[in-house]
Design goal:
Elements: E1 2-9, H1 11-15, H2 19-28, E2 32-36, E3 39-40, H3 43-49, H4 59-66, E4 70-79, H5 81-89, H6 102-106, E5 115-117, H7 121-131
Antiparallel strand pairs: 1-4, 1-5, 2-4, 3-4
Helix pairs in contact: 3-4
The structure holds adenosine-3',5'-cyclic-monophosphate (CMP).
Protein backbone atom coordinates (compact mmCIF):
# COMPACT_ATOMS: atom_id res chain seq x y z
CA UNK A 1 0.00 0.00 0.00
CA UNK A 2 1.35 3.43 -0.97
CA UNK A 3 1.94 5.45 2.23
CA UNK A 4 3.39 8.79 3.19
CA UNK A 5 5.58 9.42 6.21
CA UNK A 6 7.32 12.43 7.69
CA UNK A 7 11.10 12.41 7.76
CA UNK A 8 13.22 15.12 9.37
CA UNK A 9 16.93 15.67 8.88
CA UNK A 10 17.90 16.98 12.33
CA UNK A 11 20.23 19.90 13.18
CA UNK A 12 23.26 17.67 13.88
CA UNK A 13 23.09 16.15 10.39
CA UNK A 14 22.34 19.45 8.63
CA UNK A 15 25.26 21.12 10.47
CA UNK A 16 27.61 18.27 9.55
CA UNK A 17 26.73 18.65 5.85
CA UNK A 18 25.00 15.26 5.74
CA UNK A 19 21.69 16.37 4.18
CA UNK A 20 22.72 15.35 0.65
CA UNK A 21 24.00 11.96 1.81
CA UNK A 22 20.74 11.27 3.69
CA UNK A 23 18.58 12.30 0.73
CA UNK A 24 20.69 10.01 -1.47
CA UNK A 25 20.17 7.04 0.89
CA UNK A 26 16.41 7.64 0.93
CA UNK A 27 16.16 7.95 -2.87
CA UNK A 28 18.42 4.96 -3.53
CA UNK A 29 16.16 2.88 -1.26
CA UNK A 30 13.34 3.40 -3.76
CA UNK A 31 11.35 5.81 -1.61
CA UNK A 32 10.31 9.11 -3.18
CA UNK A 33 10.69 12.55 -1.52
CA UNK A 34 7.59 14.38 -2.78
CA UNK A 35 8.17 17.62 -0.82
CA UNK A 36 10.88 19.06 1.40
CA UNK A 37 11.96 22.35 2.99
CA UNK A 38 14.79 23.75 5.13
CA UNK A 39 13.54 25.65 8.17
CA UNK A 40 14.30 26.63 11.77
CA UNK A 41 12.03 25.51 14.60
CA UNK A 42 11.56 27.72 17.65
CA UNK A 43 11.77 26.02 21.06
CA UNK A 44 7.98 26.40 21.38
CA UNK A 45 7.40 24.76 17.99
CA UNK A 46 9.75 21.87 18.86
CA UNK A 47 7.89 21.42 22.16
CA UNK A 48 4.56 21.12 20.32
CA UNK A 49 6.00 18.68 17.77
CA UNK A 50 7.42 16.43 20.52
CA UNK A 51 4.51 16.95 22.94
CA UNK A 52 4.05 13.18 23.26
CA UNK A 53 7.41 13.14 25.12
CA UNK A 54 6.63 16.05 27.44
CA UNK A 55 6.89 13.94 30.61
CA UNK A 56 10.18 12.33 29.60
CA UNK A 57 13.42 13.46 31.27
CA UNK A 58 14.97 14.27 27.86
CA UNK A 59 12.13 16.56 26.67
CA UNK A 60 13.86 19.87 27.41
CA UNK A 61 17.20 18.78 26.02
CA UNK A 62 15.58 17.24 22.90
CA UNK A 63 13.54 20.35 22.12
CA UNK A 64 16.59 22.60 22.68
CA UNK A 65 18.59 20.45 20.26
CA UNK A 66 15.80 20.46 17.65
CA UNK A 67 15.53 24.26 17.79
CA UNK A 68 19.29 24.87 17.69
CA UNK A 69 19.87 24.85 13.93
CA UNK A 70 18.12 24.20 10.64
CA UNK A 71 16.04 21.08 10.04
CA UNK A 72 14.85 19.51 6.78
CA UNK A 73 11.33 18.05 7.00
CA UNK A 74 10.44 15.76 4.09
CA UNK A 75 7.29 14.08 2.79
CA UNK A 76 8.47 10.57 1.97
CA UNK A 77 6.25 8.34 -0.15
CA UNK A 78 6.26 4.75 -1.28
CA UNK A 79 4.94 1.26 -0.78
CA UNK A 80 5.00 0.55 2.99
CA UNK A 81 6.93 3.85 3.43
CA UNK A 82 6.58 4.13 7.22
CA UNK A 83 8.20 0.77 7.93
CA UNK A 84 10.78 1.00 5.11
CA UNK A 85 11.94 4.47 6.15
CA UNK A 86 12.26 3.31 9.77
CA UNK A 87 14.41 0.41 8.55
CA UNK A 88 16.82 2.65 6.64
CA UNK A 89 16.98 5.09 9.60
CA UNK A 90 18.07 2.31 11.99
CA UNK A 91 17.65 2.10 15.77
CA UNK A 92 16.88 5.31 17.68
CA UNK A 93 20.21 5.20 19.48
CA UNK A 94 22.82 5.95 16.81
CA UNK A 95 25.52 4.18 18.83
CA UNK A 96 23.48 0.97 18.50
CA UNK A 97 22.06 1.47 15.00
CA UNK A 98 22.66 -1.29 12.46
CA UNK A 99 25.66 -0.79 10.16
CA UNK A 100 24.86 1.17 7.00
CA UNK A 101 21.69 2.80 8.38
CA UNK A 102 21.34 6.59 8.36
CA UNK A 103 21.64 6.83 12.14
CA UNK A 104 24.72 4.60 12.12
CA UNK A 105 26.37 6.64 9.36
CA UNK A 106 25.30 10.15 10.39
CA UNK A 107 24.25 10.18 14.07
CA UNK A 108 26.15 10.14 17.36
CA UNK A 109 23.95 8.97 20.23
CA UNK A 110 20.32 8.52 21.29
CA UNK A 111 19.50 12.24 21.14
CA UNK A 112 21.77 13.37 18.30
CA UNK A 113 20.50 10.72 15.93
CA UNK A 114 20.46 12.58 12.59
CA UNK A 115 16.89 11.84 11.52
CA UNK A 116 13.31 11.44 12.66
CA UNK A 117 10.60 9.29 11.12
CA UNK A 118 6.92 8.82 11.95
CA UNK A 119 6.14 5.55 13.72
CA UNK A 120 2.57 4.79 12.55
CA UNK A 121 -0.06 5.93 9.98
CA UNK A 122 -1.93 8.19 12.46
CA UNK A 123 1.29 9.79 13.69
CA UNK A 124 2.45 10.28 10.10
CA UNK A 125 -0.79 12.12 9.24
CA UNK A 126 -0.43 14.45 12.25
CA UNK A 127 3.29 15.04 11.75
CA UNK A 128 2.94 15.72 8.00
CA UNK A 129 0.23 18.26 8.84
CA UNK A 130 2.53 19.94 11.35
CA UNK A 131 5.14 20.82 8.70
CA UNK A 132 3.23 20.84 5.40
CA UNK A 133 0.00 22.57 4.37
CA UNK A 134 -2.70 21.39 1.95
CA UNK A 135 -1.22 22.41 -1.40
CA UNK A 136 2.17 20.95 -0.47
CA UNK A 137 0.60 17.56 0.21
CA UNK A 138 -1.19 17.15 -3.14
P1 LIG B 1 12.95 10.70 17.26
O1 LIG B 1 12.76 9.58 16.30
O2 LIG B 1 12.98 12.08 16.73
O3 LIG B 1 11.80 10.62 18.37
C1 LIG B 1 11.96 11.14 19.66
C2 LIG B 1 13.37 11.54 19.93
O4 LIG B 1 13.69 11.64 21.31
C3 LIG B 1 14.31 10.46 19.42
O5 LIG B 1 14.32 10.45 18.04
C4 LIG B 1 15.60 10.85 20.10
O6 LIG B 1 16.25 11.91 19.42
C5 LIG B 1 15.08 11.37 21.42
N1 LIG B 1 15.23 10.38 22.50
C6 LIG B 1 14.57 9.22 22.63
N2 LIG B 1 14.97 8.58 23.75
C7 LIG B 1 15.88 9.39 24.34
C8 LIG B 1 16.66 9.29 25.53
N3 LIG B 1 16.56 8.23 26.34
N4 LIG B 1 17.51 10.30 25.81
C9 LIG B 1 17.60 11.37 25.00
N5 LIG B 1 16.89 11.51 23.85
C10 LIG B 1 16.05 10.53 23.53
Amino acid sequence: MIERTLGIIKPDAVRAGNSGKIIDIIEKSGLEIVAMKKISLSKDQAEVFYEVHKDKPFYDSLTKFMSDGKVVPMVIQGDDAIKRYRQIMGATDSSKAEKGTIRNLCGTDIEHNAVHGSDAPETAKDELGFFFCGYELI
